[in-house]
Design brief:
Elements: E1 6-10, H1 14-24, E2 32-36, H2 40-49, E3 53-56, H3 59-65, E4 68-71, H4 78-82, E5 92-95, H5 102-109, E6 114-119, E7 129-134, H6 138-146, E8 148-152, H7 156-165, H8 168-185, H9 190-211, H10 217-224
Parallel strand pairs: 1-2, 1-4, 2-3, 4-5, 5-6, 7-8
Antiparallel strand pairs: 6-7
Helix pairs in contact: 8-9
């Protein structure tokens, strides 16, 4: 298990920004990062903030110069960006391209690369993210363990299920929003409701993490329910 000496990102959107910030937060996990100038504002900001970042106008230079290449492209343009690139046999490629099949990626890459797919979330910028990885790979897992934690999926079905479960993020914030509204409608200042609920939910999440695999979530539900209600 090892981290790459130089990792490159093709596509410089919000997810690349989050991953680079997580990898280069002190202490930096990798010595060199290359990013494409696809988003000039993001790439320039990263290069200004982190001396380890090299901005390239040429995606092929990123492929040629990096041990590991992360494909972080919008699915709508993924094929047209990937097909012209010349990857090396055995090169490590991590795809975070959404809604794109493994078979399509391998066809576009057209080389015998070591391909893994991952679903990083924005929290990786603070090294707090949990990332689904498929198929299991020690080096890819090492990257995402630096950025929080990785869950290795043995099958594509497992990977797809975790992708679906991540949709609960919107529901989570929706519950917080509606509850804050209800508290405000009943007389509690909004800032107090927000502060209370954010801390409450953070503590509940921490409890779930610390509970261990032998305690079921439904048992925690019973434990935290108001007795006699």
């Amino acid at each position: 298990m090892s981290l790459p000496e130089k990792i490159g990102f093709i596509g410089t959107g919000a997810m690349t920004d989050a991953m680079v910030r997580g990898l280069l937060a002190e202490p930096a996990a990798v010595p060199h990062v290359m990013v494409s100038r696809r988003s000039a504002d993001i790439s320039a900001a990263l290069a200004t903030e982190f001396p380890q970042v090299i901005v390239s106008v040429d995606n092929q230079a990123i492929v040629d110069g990096c041990d590991t290449v992360v494909l972080a492209i919008r699915p709508q343009i993924a094929e047209e960006v990937i097909r012209p690139l010349r990857f090396r046999d055995g090169q490590k490629v991590i795809s975070v391209v959404a809604a794109t099949s493994r078979s399509s990626l391998l066809e576009w890459i057209d080389a015998n690369v070591h391909l893994t797919q991952a679903i990083p979330l924005p929290f990786v910028a603070r090294r707090k993210g949990v990332t689904a990885v498929y198929p299991p790979d020690v080096d890819t897992t090492a990257v995402f363990n630096v950025l929080g934690s990785a869950v290795e999926c043995e099958t594509k079905a497992e990977y797809d299920l975790l992708a679906a479960a991540s949709a609960l993020m919107a529901m989570y914030f929706g519950i917080m929003h509606r509850t804050t509204e209800w508290l405000a409608e009943n007389g509690l200042p909004e800032e107090k409701g927000r502060a209370y609920l954010a801390s409450l939910f953070a503590s509940l999440s921490e409890t779930a993490l610390l509970a261990g695999k032998d305690i079921e979530f439904i048992d925690l539900s019973h434990e935290f329910a108001t007795k006699g209600a």
